[in-house]
Amino acid sequence: MYLTLDMQRLQETGLLTPPDSFDGLSPPLGGGSVTTWLIDTRSLWPGNSILYAPGAAHAMSLISEEERKIIMGKMFIADARMSLASALMKRLFISQALGIAWNEVRLARKGDPKHGKPCAVDAVGRVIEGIDFNISHQNGLVALIGWDGQVPHSYNSDNTINGLISPTAGLRDGVTVGIDIVCVNERDDYRTIDTEGLDGWVDIYEFIFSDEERWSMKYDIDYVTLLDGSFLTRHEIGRHDRCIARNRDISCKLPSGNHVDFSSERLIEAKLRRFYTYFCYKESYIKLSGEALLAPWIRDLEFFDVRSPKPGNPARCSTDGMWGEEVDDVEVYMNGKEVNDVKMKIQSFEEGFMISTAMQGDVQGLKVPGFTTLDLNADVLDYAAAHLDHP
Q1: Radius of gyration of the chain from its Cα atoms, rounded to whole angstroms
Q2: What is the rounded (10 degree) CA torsion for 43, 45, 48, 49?
Q3: Least confident of 21-25, 104-108, 342-346
Q4: Which residue of 25, 73, 239, 357 has the lowest C-beta tally within 10 Å?
Q5: Where is the 4'-phosphopantetheinyl transferase N-terminal domain (predicted)?
């Protein structure tokens, strides 16, 4: 029997994706579902040290000794919070996907034991096929994408899962997933931009992006967000899109005949957002295989028809938790040829965050659902308590 949280609760929160929710397409052979979760750690485990943060000791008791050592070694509590949430989310996904007890979840890394992509393994360390997951965290947010391509499990008399290692009819394997979060406003990029210009700043990353991609970052524009929350389109901006410096006055004449005056800082902000859209796409793609930004083929991976998603919050708004635009029509090329077995999506969160997801393999008929924001207590800790020693 496949035991999870209360079924109605799962469906209401999006933790359970019905098998027929594939955007009008036929469900894939053998079933399969995609999970996307988010935890906002910015208000969790307050204080200056994870060792003394209220509730942290209980959460730490639910993960491995190795993970606890890594978390306690973090210099800043903000990083420790994200690492702790990441460890909990991985266990939650694996426990639910495999229908096993929380304490039976075992983690390892594919390939390189230190830098390889995290994976679930059985009691003797063999990689469990049919599921894949990836985690990203940035500036307080932790996000997970998970793929569950398992067929319904059968159990042995000792309650161990049967058939995970042997080939299983109907198993849809070969699907890998990747995810990345960026925060546009987190770094002080303007110091270099004011000295070198936006073009000089973009060229710092020539080892990551192709010439075509960098040209588009410098001189193309999607839209400009004004301080009143309104947008100017690329057509309304016109040749002002060639501006690569801040602190200049720009005046646009709109088709209506009206003039709009704004600082070029808004334009540079829009181009930074576009740069980080490219960066987020590229990072989530290379995380499909667990490789880093130093992958030798990274400049051969190119993205076209890139559009940065409009933010969830108006400029300079402090409201938290608002989701923005989703964009899923980017084109992916490798060595000049289109990659047809990958699906990518990027969505904005609040004013400065963007989250990109990538799925590759047998992805026909699959759709990445909207993110579900998990409640630490109700969705994670209560589940762990109920399934600690039994599925």
Answers
A1: 22
A2: -150
A3: 21-25
A4: 239
A5: 58-145
Phi/psi-derived region of residue 350, left when phi > 0, alpha when psi is between -120 and 50, beta in every other case:
left
Distance CA 52, CA 40 (A): 20
Query: Could you tell me if 108 and 125 are in contact, meaning their C-beta atoms sit under 8 angstroms apart?
Result: yes
Residue among 368, 292, 361, 369 nearest 130 (CA): 361
**Spatial separation of the C-alpha atoms in residues 233 and 310, rounded to whole Å:** 12
Up-side HSE of residue 76: CA atoms within 13 Å toward CB?
A: 6
Amino acid at 56: A
Distance of CA 4 to the CA centre of its chain: 24
Token pair in block for residue 329: 């029509």
CA distance 129 to 167: 9
The label of the residue with tokens 């983690």 reads 107
Does residue 323 have a pLDDT over 80?
A: yes
Classify the phi-psi angles of 36: left when phi > 0, otherwise alpha if psi is within -120 to 50, otherwise beta.
Answer: beta
- Over 70: is that where the pLDDT of 385 sits? yes
Residue 273 in this model has a pLDDT that exceeds 60: yes
Q: Which helix (H) or strand (E) holds 90?
A: helix 77-98
Average pLDDT, the chain: 86
Using CA atoms, how far apart are residues 270 and 223, in angstroms rounded to an integer? 7
Q: Residue 37: phi, psi to the nearest 5?
A: -125, 155
Residue 374 has pLDDT above 70, yes or no: yes
Residue 157: pLDDT band by 50, 70, 90 thresholds? low
Instruction: Catalogue all structural domains in the chain, each as residue range(s) with its CATH number.
Output: 7-175+361-386 (3.90.470.20), 190-351 (no CATH)
Q: Tokens 């406003």 label which residue? A: 185
Backbone angles phi, psi at 324, to 5 degrees: -110, -150
Residue 105, CB-side half-sphere exposure with 13 Å CA sphere: 26
The three-state secondary structure class of 131 is strand
CA distance 48 to 158: 45
Q: What is the pLDDT of residues 163-194, one digit of tens each?
A: 544 334 345 558 999 999 999 977 788 888 99
Q: What is the mean pLDDT of residues 258-265?
A: 92
Q: How far apart are CA 82 and CA 60, in angstroms?
A: 12
Report which of 183, 108, 194, 173 is spatially closest to residue 141, judged by C-alpha positions: 183
